[in-house]
Amino acid sequence: MSLFVSHGAPTFALEPGLAGPALTDLGRRLPKPEAVLVVSPHWMTTGIRVGFSEKPATIHDFSGFPPELYRMEYPVPGHPALAGKALALLEAAGWKPVADASRGLDHGAWVPLMHLFPEASVPVFQVSMPMDLDSESAWQLGEALRPLEHDGALIVGSGSLTHNLHEVRWGDRKASDYAREFTDWVRLNVQEGNHQQLIGTLKLAPHARRAHPTEEHFLPLLVAAGAAGIGSSGGLIDGGIEHGVLAMDAFVFNREATWIGGLSGFPN
């Protein structure tokens, strides 16, 4: 099982909207993982790095937001043992990863996890996004990390289903037509398990380049889908569209016959 979450604006930590309670409900129903591995566009590096910190700091990697946001902490432990296994898997797949014992958790990791696991009781570590990652290699990155599920890791791609910050209308809950049309296209192909369509999303989907002027916030979805594998469908967590253009959907990908009930697109 793997998960894609839309982390939205940093204020998602303070303003949960539809997505926050839905993630909290999901976290209660998921089997408790040994650790969460997060891939986020807010840790992009030359090459690929794996976080080995035993006590990863909460990084407030944003500016211009309410003061209370900078006082928030997500005090989870890391998981160096599983990070070591991730490093070995990436090496075996030809990625040439580097261990990083000092990196904390960026807001793409801790903000959605505050909703998913609010007790901060599940260890967390991150794998960085290489700066040259593209759609094909994002899927391959997920494939390389897939065996970690057998060690109890929940692989989470944290990005944004749409991410045009130039068109954000703060506080506006009326969704733009283009954002809805793009979101509907992705939902359909996730739920039907159309992996080639998903990999080609930024070329094939309606309004793709308007929804994602740059691709880094979409690629974590492909990491999560790749971690589940070809033929895996995704159950939808409807997070709505915030600030006019930021779609907050999440998807749970599962290759097994047992499913988490109550999610749109899952068989009951």
From TrEMBL:
Sequence ranges assigned to domain Extradiol ring-cleavage dioxygenase class III enzyme subunit B in this UniProt record: 32-229
Keyword Nucleus found: no
Record-annotated membrane-spanning stretches: none
InterPro entries: Extradiol_dOase_DODA, Xdiol_dOase_suB
GO MF term list: dioxygenase activity
Alphabetical list of SUPFAM superfamilies matching this protein: LigB-like
The protein's name: Dioxygenase
Superkingdom of this protein's organism: Bacteria
Keyword hit for Oxidoreductase: yes
CDD domains: 45_DOPA_Dioxygenase
Family: Belongs to the DODA-type extradiol aromatic ring-opening dioxygenase family.
Cofactor: Zn(2+)
Source organism: Marinobacter metalliresistant
UniProt KW keywords: Dioxygenase, Metal-binding, Oxidoreductase, Zinc
